Structure formats: structure tokens, C-alpha cells
Amino acid sequence: MTPLSRHLAAQITALGPMTLANFMQQCLLDPTHGYYATRDPFGTSGDFTTAPEISQMFGELIGLSLAQSWLDQGAPKPFILAELGPGRGTLMRDIWRATAHVPGFHDAAKVTLVEASSIMRATQAKTLRAVHPIWVDTTADLPSGPLFLVANEFFDALPIRQFIRHNTGWVERVIGLDRDQFVFGQTPHTPLTDLSYRWDDTVEHDMIEICKPGQIIATIVGERIATHGGAALIIDYGDWRSLGDTLQALQNHEPTDPLLAPGEADLTAHVDFEALAKAASPAHFTRLTPQGTFLERLGITERARALAKNIKGTSLKSHVAAHRRLTHPSEMGSLFKVLGLFPNGALPPPGLEQ
Ligand code: SAH
């Protein structure tokens, strides 16, 4: 058993089975042994790769979409340019480079990163040396003011709870111990009452997932945008409404058992975009749009052609593959979706529609 497994097992022995959210939170963010606290998980030597790590085009187009929203809203000065869970800092670096020629944008932007992991903060500081960002621990700590925000593969890393429809109500999927193995179990019933809205679209034994931290963060972002102006682009895998077990563990780019090696594998779940959109009210939300459609509307193919002119050989091959990977429906193009948030009376962020 690893130190984190022993720690989790001791809690279960003392307090009884724990919620999946409690388990995920500790596996990912335990300050000493958590997954994000102990490694840089990206790239071919890590456990997964994200869109900004695949091609610079992703961040460039997001930067231009955010900058256009800023211009559309009268170029407010100063404003907060924020990213939730910035990973290696690659997305913000590409946003920054692509917006260098938007008059006044860099001067007015206070780049603010919401990052829980000190290892990731150190990597971000290196990548973004020229940008001079500041870091905050939580979304609630973002400075006040107009907020232009991006979150790519952030909400999928937040802890979820899972509920199964059973007879006249819901039971919760929890984690217990069988000798020294972690095992899934179920509570006899759940006291949670706010699941009733899922009664009409589910049947006996269906599973639904609730991500409370995601909803709280969406509420904070929505309130800021509705009050001070701004826009948010939330990009992730998931759908308009969660149905079924989407908990996933990845280690060395391969799926693994989520209970097998706590803290050693990345744990994620699909994002329930409906829950985020509703939590963000009174900010308005856009139609949920496949990533491929969003990037095509922003001109990724023209940008890919322009970049292709200056490269050849294996670099050209991998550039063409990256364009396909980001946009093609059989790759990331339809699994990943984009949700935009914007204030009443403003235009939706470019690439999205109301
Ligand atoms: N957006 C990046 C990285 C996605 S991975 C990219 O597209 O490449 C998730 C990121 O969110 C990591 O930087 C991780 O350290 C951070 N993170 C995970 N949970 C968090 C939390 N609760 N609060 C703040 N940051 C978190």
C-alpha cells in the first residue's frame, strides 16, 4: 500500500465508506501524495495530452475569440484575463502571443491563473515568464473587474458524486474496504433531495453524476461576468446532461482501475454542461458546440494552411495530424464541447452562438 492508500484506508476504517468526491479530491490534490501535487502529468512521457499541447493553433484561436469579445464589449480597462487549471501554461502562452497585436489588450490585461498544484505553478512560471501572471488558489479569489476566462480540461478534474436510481429514490455509490482493497459499494439511501429534477429522464438502475465544485465555480464566474462584463470559454469532454458512469482513470495513456492506485492515476469524469450553464445564471450561455465546429468557425483550417507553408517533412506530417486531431469528429472534434458565458446584451464569444 502507498502512503495515500494507507491514509484513505484509515479514514474509511474510522468513519465508514467515503463518497467518490472525497476519494477523488484526495487522490488528485492531497498536498503531499496527490496526483497533481507530485508530478507533471502531460505529454508523451506523462499520462495524457491536452489540446494546447497538441498544437499552438488551439490557444491562438481561443485568444482571438476572447480578444474579440473584449473589443465587442468596449475594450474595458483594466480587465482580468484568467485561466482555470492552466497545466503547463501552454494555452495562456499561445493566447498571449496571438493577442500581441490587439491594440491595448496586453496593457489592460491582468493575467491571473487559478492553480492548486505547486508543481504546476512552477512550470507555468517558466512558460509564462514574459507574461508576469499572478496565481490564486480558487476562483473566488480572482480579483474583481471584467473577467475574460478560459478553462480547458479543468472541470473534468473536479470531484463528482455518483447516484443510482433505486426503487423510490437514489442511493449513492461510495468507496469502502474489503481487507486492504478499495471497493465500490452503495449507501442504503441518500438524504440528498436536489436530485428530483432527474426523475423524469431516468429509469431504475440509471446512474447520474453531480459535480458540486463545478457548479459553485460556474456560479462565481457567471456572477462576475453578469456584474462586471466579460466572457468565459469552457472546453471539456462531456455533454448537455450526465447519464451513466463516466469516471475514468488514466495512467501512461492507458485506462486503469480508478481504485487500484490512489494518487498514481489521473481521475476525471465527463462534464455535465447543463449543470454549469444553469449555475452560471444570470450570465447568459451559448449553445453547446462541438470543439471541431468551434475551431473551424474561428478559421483553424486557414491558420493551419498558413503555418504549413513554412514547414516540411515530419514536422508537416505532425502539423497535419494535429489539425485533424483537434477537429475531426472521430478524434477530439465532437467528444470535446465548448460552452460560452457572456453578459446580458452582449454578443456571444466568436465561434459560438446563442
Ligand atoms: N488546461 C490545461 C491543463 C488541464 S489538467 C491544458 O489544457 O493543458 C488540469 C489542471 O487543473 C492542472 O493544471 C491541475 O493542476 C489543475 N487543477 C486540478 N484541480 C484543480 C482545482 N481544484 N483547483 C485549481 N486547479 C486545479
Please render the helix and strand layout as text:
Elements: H1 3-15, E1 18-19, H2 20-29, H3 35-38, H4 51-54, H5 56-72, E2 79-84, H6 90-98, H7 105-108, E3 109-114, H8 118-127, E4 134-136, E5 147-152, E6 161-166, E7 169-178, E8 181-186, E9 207-210, H9 212-228, E10 230-239, E11 248-251, E12 254-256, E13 266-268, E14 271-272, H10 273-279, E15 284-285, E16 289-290, H11 291-297, H12 300-308, H13 313-327, E17 336-342
Parallel strand pairs: 2-3, 2-5, 3-4, 5-10, 10-14
Antiparallel strand pairs: 1-7, 6-7, 6-9, 7-8, 10-17, 11-12, 11-13, 15-17, 16-17
Helix pairs in contact: 5-6, 9-10, 12-13
| Helix-strand makeup class | alpha/beta
> Going by CATH, what is the homologous superfamily of the largest domain?
Vaccinia Virus protein VP39
The total of beta strands comes to 17
For this structure, the CATH topology of the largest domain is Rossmann fold
Summarize the structure in short.
It is built from 13 helices and 17 strands. It is α/β, with parallel strands linked by helices and 354 residues long.
Description:
The protein is α/β, with parallel strands linked by helices. It has two domains: 3-34 and 160-209, no CATH class; 51-159 and 212-242 and 265-299 and 335-342, Vaccinia Virus protein VP39 (Rossmann fold). It has 13 helices and 17 strands. The protein has helices at residues 3-15, 20-29, 35-38, 51-54, 56-72, 90-98, 105-108, 118-127, 212-228, 273-279, 291-297, 300-308, 313-327, and strands at 18-19, 79-84, 109-114, 134-136, 147-152, 161-166, 169-178, 181-186, 207-210, 230-239, 248-251, 254-256, 266-268, 271-272, 284-285, 289-290, 336-342. The strands form three sheets. Strands 2, 3, 4, 5, 10, 14, 15, 16 and 17 form a nine-stranded mixed beta sheet that branches. Helix 9 (212-228) crosses helix 10. The radius of gyration is 21 Å and the shape is globular. The termini are far apart. The model has no long low-confidence stretch (mean pLDDT 95). It binds S-adenosyl-L-homocysteine. S-adenosyl-L-homocysteine binds at residues 28-29, 36, 50, 52-53, 85-87, 91, 114-117, 120, 152-154, 157-158.
